[in-house]
Specification:
The chain has 8 helices and 11 strands. By secondary structure, it is of the alpha+beta class. It has a domain of 150 residues: Hypothetical Protein Pfu-838710-001, CATH 2.40.320. The longest helix has 19 residues.
Length: 260
């Protein structure tokens, strides 16, 4: 649940529809991520007024997402990421609660630091791959579809902003939780993941200059990798140790603030 003050600030933005947003779908883009405490979000969103519009669907601007990530038994995609492989992939099924649609998605980070996403519609709540899905996956990641299995579930709330002057988006994800397919849920109420999705580099973006005023700097952050590291004792999780320590500090600060 987002604070009432945050929801009140969102009402000061002009709204756009999903159809408006899809005019610039940014399926080939540069992603720049920032992590920050949820308590700082009001300051961030206030300085965005006048520069961005907010996505509204069915009267809501804070929208729910459910994601299931897939990987091989030896964690091919997880290891690609934590070892810093220049080109790496993710496979996920994402349920967009606000529209009732589900997509099977392949997300690739290229050697040129761009993010490319491909997707096809998937039956709701179906975590298996039919012939169409297998053909889709094999067209981008050959010979992997038959050995993929669901590994991690991730729920979160998202607010999406679109640039008024330039074709870019900013997403703010909060209320994150992770669960394995057979493990209890791990909630992260103190963290906000902010992402700029743009055609060019962040330094040329309106948002890049706005967030720097708050002394928040970009950092890599994969929900899939951190969910695995938080839930499971798996090889190479220590490669994320420095960022896990940052999360631990944010959590301690959050607990201190609510107990004050």
């Amino acid at each position: 649940m987002m604070p009432a003050a945050f929801e009140s600030i969102l009402k000061e933005f002009n709204c756009v529809s999903l159809k408006d947003l899809e005019k610039a779908n940014l399926m080939n883009r540069i992603d720049t991520k920032f992590i920050m405490p949820v308590g700082q979000l009001n300051d961030l969103v206030e300085v965005m007024i006048g520069h961005y519009n907010v996505l509204e669907i069915n009267g809501g601007t804070i929208l729910d997402y459910n994601t299931t990530y897939f990987d091989t038994g030896d964690l091919l995609f997880f290891n690609q990421h934590v070892t810093g492989r220049a080109e790496r992939d993710k496979v996920r099924i994402r349920y967009y609660v606000s529209t009732g649609t589900t997509f099977l998605e392949v997300k690739r980070r290229t050697r040129k630091n761009r993010t490319i996403k491909w997707r096809i519609e998937q039956p709701v709540s179906d975590l298996t791959f039919d012939e169409k899905a297998v053909a889709f996956l094999n067209s981008y990641i050959p010979d992997v579809a038959t050995i993929l299995r669901p590994m991690l579930r991730n729920d979160f709330c998202r607010v999406t902003f679109s640039g008024i002057a330039i074709p870019e988006r900013v997403t703010i994800d909060t209320c994150l939780s992770f669960a394995g397919m057979e493990t209890e849920r791990y909630n992260i109420p103190f963290l906000a993941i902010v992402e700029l999705k743009s055609e060019g580099i962040a330094s040329r973006s309106t948002f890049g200059s706005l967030i720097r005023k708050l002394s928040v700097h970009s950092t890599g952050f994969s929900k899939y990798c951190f969910g695995n590291a938080l839930l499971f004792d798996i090889p190479r999780k220590n490669m994320l140790k420095s960022k896990l320590l940052v999360l631990n500090k944010l959590e301690n600060d959050y607990k201190s603030s609510i107990n004050a």
